[in-house]
Design brief:
With about 400 residues, the protein is α/β, with parallel strands linked by helices. The chain has helices at about 75, 110-125, 150-160, 210-220, 270-285, 295-300, 300-305, 315-325, 345-375, 380-395; strands at about 1-5, 10-15, 25, 30-35, 40, 55, 60, 65, 80-85, 90, 95-100, 135-140, 180-185, 190-200, 255-260, 290-295, 335. The protein folds into two domains: about 1-85, no CATH class; about 110-395, Rossmann fold. A six-stranded mixed sheet has the order 13-14-12-15-16-17, sandwiched between helices. Strands 3-4-5-7 form a four-stranded antiparallel sheet, with no helix packed on it.
């Protein structure tokens, strides 16, 4: 049996009526040909996409090996060979397995050694330069329920060697996270790594984080563990407000965390809010990344095998949508699957998450180097930064 779906036409199933051994032929010079009498010859040579469809150059001659159930040529393919969907399957032990195309994003071969390499790269990460940074701060922003807290839990789980839930997560009308929390990531020895994933309130159309609060977060004015008040946004008069933040308090990379399954359904007003935040981020030169979560819910092939993520056309389309939504390059859109239903670690889920995190750290490192050059050009030496940091620490202890 094979399926046909032509432009402007419904999908039709064709069933063999004679010798099933004559079901399918193929060579390197032409596409699949079905039936001993060439009931359907799909194409010769190379077919180029016309945008919304592929214009095949084949022909039909139904009735030799396949039953067309009395349908005429026009009824089957709407009078054309413009194919909008083309899927290839392999049958193994009676099971139909979809053959996915070549990866749209090439990566290293996924195996235990690659997982070790990613882990070592992240463990060894340390902010370079002379800015006095012990770690970098990565701010996570995104709609409620997109998976900000779960992304932190996923990363922390990988390095703890077990499923961890240090950050509260779940479903709530107004979100679970209500405080600015710069989470550290710990390895099994209890040592912390040199970055913090900073969780904060989810974004909403009428409530949630506002532009002024976002600006304060980026600049390091909001103290750690500050609990946001939806009725009274933070201001310089609030106790604990950091009036002279250090580089160590500031944000070094921003993650927009978005659900891959609903990326095309985000309300325009919420998109506008994220774009307004981007304006602030752009003015400060801080790098931006999209973490595209829940890829298993956006594509069945990925749900069955996470390693299909960079072969899936559905995920590629979600990446394209996210890229257009926020005006970021596609290599700044990083698909992940958070640990959600699992109670044991899975190497492939871990690899995907660490690939994203390593790229984020690379962007943060690039920003730090640029920032260091800017400060140097302004005549701010590392000694002055160190003195200022010492003075602030002394002031905090009084």
């Amino acid at each position: 049996m094979f399926q046909l779906k032509y432009s402007g036409s419904d999908t039709f199933n064709m069933f063999p009526i004679k010798n099933p051994s004559n079901g399918l032929f193929g060579k390197s010079t032409y596409g699949p040909t079905f039936g001993g009498g060439h009931d359907l010859h799909t194409f010769n040579g190379t077919i180029i996409s016309a945008g919304a469809y592929f214009a095949l150059n084949g022909y039909t001659n139904f009735g030799s090996s396949f039953n067309n159930s009395g349908l005429t040529f026009d009824k089957i393919n709407n009078g054309n060979f413009n194919v909008t969907e083309l899927e290839v399957y392999r049958v193994t032990d009676g099971q139909r397995i979809k053959i996915l195309p070549q990866p749209w994003r090439k990566t290293h071969e996924w195996n235990e050694k690659y997982l070790e390499t990613l882990t070592e790269d992240i463990v060894s990460f340390k902010p370079s330069g002379k800015l006095g940074l012990s770690d970098v701060r990565i701010l996570m922003l995104g709609p409620i329920g997109a998976g900000k807290s779960s992304f932190y839990n996923t990363i922390n789980s990988v390095f703890k060697g077990r499923i961890s839930r240090s950050a509260p997560c779940g479903l709530s009308t107004n979100g679970i996270t209500i405080a600015y929390t710069p989470y550290e990531v710990y390895v099994r020895s209890a040592a912390s790594l040199n970055f913090r994933l900073c969780d904060t309130r989810g974004l909403e159309v009428t409530q949630g984080l506002e532009s002024l609060e976002c600006n304060y977060l980026l600049d390091g004015n909001i103290p750690d563990f500050y609990q946001f008040n939806p009725v009274a946004p933070i201001s310089p008069t609030n106790p604990g407000f950091v009036h002279q933040p250090m580089v160590t308090d500031q944000i070094h990379c921003v993650l927009f965390v978005i659900d891959a399954a609903t990326v095309g359904d985000i309300p325009q007003k919420l998109v506008d809010k994220m774009n307004s935040f981007q304006t602030l981020v752009n003015l400060k030169g801080i790098p931006q990344v999209v973490i595209l979560t829940k890829v298993d819910q956006a594509c069945q092939e990925v749900a069955g095998n996470i390693t299909n993520v960079f072969k899936s056309k559905d995920i590629e389309a979600a990446v394209e949508k996210a890229s257009n939504l926020l005006g970021l390059p596609r290599n700044h859109v990083l698909p992940v699957k958070n640990y959600e239903t699992e109670i044991e670690l899975d190497d492939n889920i871990s690899i995907l998450a660490l690939m994203a995190l390593r790229q984020v750290l690379h962007f943060a490192e690039d920003y730090i180097q640029v920032l260091q050059n800017k400060l140097k050009a302004c005549g701010v030496s590392s000694e002055k930064l160190d003195q200022r940091e010492s003075l602030e620490k002394g002031s905090d202890q009084e």
